[in-house]
Every structure is written in C-alpha cells, then in structure tokens.
Amino acid sequence: MVKKILLGLISVVWFSMFWASFRSTYNAVPRGGVIRESFNFSIFLLVTAVKRGNPYPHRYKYGKIDKPIDLPIFLKLQERVDKVDRSGYPTKFIQALLALFYWTGLRKTEVLGRKQIKYRVKAGIKVGKPHLGLLKEDMRLEDDALFVFSVGDKVLKHGKREAPLVLRLDLPYVDLIVERWRKTKPGSRVFPISYITFWRVCKRVDPKFAPHFFRHNRVTKFSANPKLSLADICAWTGLSPPTVSTYMMRAGRYTKRTGDIMAEETR
C-alpha cells in the first residue's frame, strides 16, 4: 500500500515537472512560426492517439448495444421501472415516456424540449431555437390510434417530417401514453421532466440504455424490415434518404436479400 502511494506521488511530481518544462518551452516559441506549428501538430497527433478507438469510453461504461432490442426485452425493461428510483415521478409516467420513445423513435428534444443552444458550424456560430417539447395540442386521439404531430418546425436538428406519427392503441403501453395525454392541461407539456432526470432514470432501469438509443433502435428495426420502403422510413423518422440508406446497409437488408436470391439457384 505504501509503495503504491509513493509511486503515485512520484508520478504526479514527474508529470508536473514535465508539464512545466513543456509549457515554458512552448511559450518561448514565437507564434505563427514553423516550429510553433510543428508543436501544435505534435500535440494534435498525441491527443488523437490517446483518443483512438472510442474517444468517450464513459458513455459505454457498461457496454455498447450494437443490435436493436425486440419487444420482449423492452417489456422486461418496463417491469423494472417500479423497482428503481424514479426521482419522484410515478411508475406509469416513466413507462409511458419509455413507450413513446420505443415506438416512435422521436428525438429527445422533440419530446422533452430544450433551451436555446449555440453550436459551431463551418460557417460560424449557429443558434438553435428553444423548443418546449410535446404539448397537449401536439397529440390527438382518433378512432383506434394516437396521432403525434411532431412535424414541420418541431423536427429539430436536421431532417423533415410532414405527416403525424400514428400509434395503434393496441400496442403495449400506448394506453399509458393516452392516459398521460388526457391528464395534461391545454398548452402544457405532456411529459414535464428534464432530459438529464429522465436519462438518470433510464440508467437506473438498465445502465446500458439511454433515451437516444431508442431512436437508433427504431430506425434500425425499420431499416431491416423489407416490408418498409425508403420513403416509409424517411416519412416516419424525418431523416434524409442518404442517412436511411446507411441504416439499411448496416442492418444487412441488402445483403440478406442478395443471399436469398443466391439460394434460389439451388431450387
């Protein structure tokens, strides 16, 4: 134990001396010169080498899910909701929100909203407008289906969706979404919860899942289904055709079809 502490102290002292020497040498080099640019490039290569692979290992601390989950796994997740700390929110509230993400694949900002944000693009700084999230008026009940109107300007980031999403009422847990919608007052958010709070609840249900996973899950499941066309998936997700085409290739849709055609040679 003592040896480990001494080694740790020596490492800290050594790194501090190295860093101080590096900083003094770096600051002594004139700005804009070849040597200064070489220093910058060396630092860039060092950082790139350190980050090679997954630059954010903390995001997948419990493993990354590469394959979509099916309904039985999702139902097991829903059964765990009652057994975890939900930050004061009722079980049905969290289950309804999980069901909405699972079935629709909506972006987290479309459902939960966001404040005004600024982000850097090639042309400079771009301002993302604030969004309240899904309101009472953004959902409508007709016959045997729930219509979710996340269309037009409500589709944030990129992509376009012109028609509402249609959820059949006989899908598991959609009845809880309807129940939550009916309790919501006009002009109010259907799910008044912050993203970080919901993220934490998701992690307590299963550390491998986060809200945005369900968007990738839905797009991947659609992309692997030969009954759905490119136009069908684009209309539902709001993604562009090139993006959906990439999902379709990664889902193995084309290679599976090619394999089936090859099997016809044996008939």
Give a topology summary:
Blueprint: H1 2-28, H2 34-51, H3 71-80, H4 91-104, H5 108-112, E1 117-121, E2 124-128, E3 139-142, E4 145-148, E5 165-168, H6 174-183, H7 195-205, H8 213-224, H9 230-237, H10 241-250, H11 253-263
Antiparallel strand pairs: 1-2, 3-4, 4-5
Helix pairs in contact: 4-6, 4-8, 8-10
Give a structural overview:
This protein is 51% helix and 8% strand. It has a domain at 71-256: Intergrase catalytic core (hpI Integrase, Chain A, Orthogonal Bundle). Strand 1 and strand 2 (124-128) form a beta hairpin. Residues 49-56 have low confidence and may be disordered. The protein has helices spanning 2-28, 34-51, 71-80, 91-104, 108-112, 174-183, 195-205, 213-224, 230-237, 241-250, 253-263; strands at residues 117-121, 124-128, 139-142, 145-148, 165-168. The termini are far apart. The strands form two sheets. The chain has a three-stranded antiparallel β-sheet, with helices on one face. A two-stranded antiparallel sheet has the order 1-2. With 267 residues, the protein is mainly alpha-helical.
Radius of gyration, whole Å: 25 Å
Give me the secondary-structure category. Answer: mainly alpha
Whole-number mean pLDDT: 81
Uncertain stretches? 49-56
Strand content: 5-15%
Compressed to H and E, one letter per element, the order equals HHHHHEEEEEHHHHHH
Q: Give the CATH H-level superfamily of the domain at 71-256.
A: Intergrase catalytic core
Q: Briefly note the CATH topology name of the domain at 71-256.
A: hpI Integrase, Chain A
| Principal-axis shape | extended
CATH architecture of the domain at 71-256: Orthogonal Bundle
